[in-house]
C-alpha cells in the first residue's frame, strides 16, 4: 500500500464561524464540526483515487461491463482503503479491528467476527429494473445508467471470505426494491456460488425479499404515511453486521444520493400498491430539496434504525463512475485531481455522516452534478449529527422503544473546493479527517 496522507495543501482561509456550533450554514461555508465523530479514528474518511481502475471510453459498451473496470486495481483500492481506515498492517487485521470496534460499542464483549455470524451488504441498484441490463425492454431502465460496480461487490465479497473469515453462505447482497441484475449476479457467482442475492422478485437464482414484521420503522414525523407499518427486510434483521455500499449521485428530489439514501431500498410498506410493497414513495415529499431549512428528514430514521444504519460496520461510496441523477449516465468530474476524467475513487468510513458530508461537498463542487445539489439537500446531515437535539425539533426514535437517537456522526464542509480540508486535517481532531491515497 502506498503511504497515505491527510489532505493538506497550502494556506487556508478562515476556517470556522465565530459563533461556534451551528445548525445550518450556507452550502459553501466551512464551519466548526457538528456532532460526534465515529470510528477507530473518529471522523476519518479514506479516499482512494486510482485513474487506472476505470477503463470505459464513455461511448462503446457500458460502464458496468466486465471490461470497464480493472479488477486488480479495484482489489488494491479496497485493500489500501481498509488499512488506511483502521491503521492496520494487513487486511485481516483491518477487518478484525472493524468488527471489534463495532462490538465494543454495541454492548458486546470486545471481540472480532465469529464464525456463523451473518453479514448483509446493501448495494445501490436503483437503475436496475430488469435482470438483463444491456437488452432491457423496460422503459424505465437505461443501459447507460450508473449502477454499483460488479467488480467492487466482487472485491468486497472476496475480502469478507478470505480476510474476515466469513462463510459464503453467511453473506447476503441485497436491494429489496430493485433487481440484482445479471452483471452483478453473474460476475460474482462465477466464483462465489453460495453467497445469497436478495431482491424484489427472487427468480433466476436470487432470493425474494421478505419483510420482518417484528422490525417496524417509526418515523419521527407522525404525518409520514406508513409509520410503524414499514418493515425492514428479513435478510437485514438476520444479519449481525451490515455494510452499506452506495454511490455518489446528484438527485433531482433529494439533491444527493449517498449512504443514507441507499437505505431507501430497505423497507416494505404494508398496503403499498406496486413493486410488492418495496417502494419508498411515502418518503419522497419529506426529502424534497424545496422544503424549508431545518426540516425533519426520514433519512435520519433509516440511518439510525438498529437494523439498518445501526448495525452497519462500514460505509462505502463506489465512486468509480459517478452520476447526475438517480438513473443517469456516468459523468466526469472537473475538480482536481479528476480534471475532466472519471472520478475513479473509492471512499470508506465508519462514520456515516462524515462520509456523506464529503460526498455532498464533492457532488456540489463538480459542475456536472452541482446544479441538483441545492436547497435543503444538506439538512439531513445536520439532523443526523444532532439527532439528540435536531434543528427540526422532532424526536428521532425509529424503533419507538423510548430510546432517542444520539449523534450519528460528524458533519462539516470542507474549507474550499481546491484544498478540500476539514478540521481533522487542520486541527488534528474534532471533525472530519479526509485521508487521501493517490495510487
Structural notes for this entry:
With 439 residues, the chain is an alpha/beta fold. It has 9 helices and 19 strands. The strands form 4 sheets. A 10-stranded mixed sheet has the order 1-19-3-17-14-10-4-5-6-7, sandwiched between helices. It has a 4-stranded mixed sheet with strand order 12-11-15-16, with helices on one face. Strands 8-9-13 form a 3-stranded antiparallel sheet. A hairpin with a 5-residue loop joins strand 15 and strand 16. Helix 3 (150-162) packs parallel to helix 4. The protein is globular, with a radius of gyration of 20 Å. The N and C termini lie close together (9 Å). Mean pLDDT is 91; it is low at 1-28.
Largest sheet descriptor: 10 strands, mixed
Provide the residue-averaged pLDDT.
Answer: 91
Broad shape: globular
* Estimated structural class: alpha/beta
What's the Cα radius of gyration? 20 Å
Uncertain segments: 1-28
Helix content: 10-25%
Strand content: 15-25%
What is the number of helices? Answer: 9
Strand order of the largest sheet: 1-19-3-17-14-10-4-5-6-7
Distance between the termini: 9 Å
Number of distinct beta strands: 19
- Element-level helix/strand string: EEEHHEHEHEEEEHEEEEHEEEEHHEHE
Amino acid at each position: 500500500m502506498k503511504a497515505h496522507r491527510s489532505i493538506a495543501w497550502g494556506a487556508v482561509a478562515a476556517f470556522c464561524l465565530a459563533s461556534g456550533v451551528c445548525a445550518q450554514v450556507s452550502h459553501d461555508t466551512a464551519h466548526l464540526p457538528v456532532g460526534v465523530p465515529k470510528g477507530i479514528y473518529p471522523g476519518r474518511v479514506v479516499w482512494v483515487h486510482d485513474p487506472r481502475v476505470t477503463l470505459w471510453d464513455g461511448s462503446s459498451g457500458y460502464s458496468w461491463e466486465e471490461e470497464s473496470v480493472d479488477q486488480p486495481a479495484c482489489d488494491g483500492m479496497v485493500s489500501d482503503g481498509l488499512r488506511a481506515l483502521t491503521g492496520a498492517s494487513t487486511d485481516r487485521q483491518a477487518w478484525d479491528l472493524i468488527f471489534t470496534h463495532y462490538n465494543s460499542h454495541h454492548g458486546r464483549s470486545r471481540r472480532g467476527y465469529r464464525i456463523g455470524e451473518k453479514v448483509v451488504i446493501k448495494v445501490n441498484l436503483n437503475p436496475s429494473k430488469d435482470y438483463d441490463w444491456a437488452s432491457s425492454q423496460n422503459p424505465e431502465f437505461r443501459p447507460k445508467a450508473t449502477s454499483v460496480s460488479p467488480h467492487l461487490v466482487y472485491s468486497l465479497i472476496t475480502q469478507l471470505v478470505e480476510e474476515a473469515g466469513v462463510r459464503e453462505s453467511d453473506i447476503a447482497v441485497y436491494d429489496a426494491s430493485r433487481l440484482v441484475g445479471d452483471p452483478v449476479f453473474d460476475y460474482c457467482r462465477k466464483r462465489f456460488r453460495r453467497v445469497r442475492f436478495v431482491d424484489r422478485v427472487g427468480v433466476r437464482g436470487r432470493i425474494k425479499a421478505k419483510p420482518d414484521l417484528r422490525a417496524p420503522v417509526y418515523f419521527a414525523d407522525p404525518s409520514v404515511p406508513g409509520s410503524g407499518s414499514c418493515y425492514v427486510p428479513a435478510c437485514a434483521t438476520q444479519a449481525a453486521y451490515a455494510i452499506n455500499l452506495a454511490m455518489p449521485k446528484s438527485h433531482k428530489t433529494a439533491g444527493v444520493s449517498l449512504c443514507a439514501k441507499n437505505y431507501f431500498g430497505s423497507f416494505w410498506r404494508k398496503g403499498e400498491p406496486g413493486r410488492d410493497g418495496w417502494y419508498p414513495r411515502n418518503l419522497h415529499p419529506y426529502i424534497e430539496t424545496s422544503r424549508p431549512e431545518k426540516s425533519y428528514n426520514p433519512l435520519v430514521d433509516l440511518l439510525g434504525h438498529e437494523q439498518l444504519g445501526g448495525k452497519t460496520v462500514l460505509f462505502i461510496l463506489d465512486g468509480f463512475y459517478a452520476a447526475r441523477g438517480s438513473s443517469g449516465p456516468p459523468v466526469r468530474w472537473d475538480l482536481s485531481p479528476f480534471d475532466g476524467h472519471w472520478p475513479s475513487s473509492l471512499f470508506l468510513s465508519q462514520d456515516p455522516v462524515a462520509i456523506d458530508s464529503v460526498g455532498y461537498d464533492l457532488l456540489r463542487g463538480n459542475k456536472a452534478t452541482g446544479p441538483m445539489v441545492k436547497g435543503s439537500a444538506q439538512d439531513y446531515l445536520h439532523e443526523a449529527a444532532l439527532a439528540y437535539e435536531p434543528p427540526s425539533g422532532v424526536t428521532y426514535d425509529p424503533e419507538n422503544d423510548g430510546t432517542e437517537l444520539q449523534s450519528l456522526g460528524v458533519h462539516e464542509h470542507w474549507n474550499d473546493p481546491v484544498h478540500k480540508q476539514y478540521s481533522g486535517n487542520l486541527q488534528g481532531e474534532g471533525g472530519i479527517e479526509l485521508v487521501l491515497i493517490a495510487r
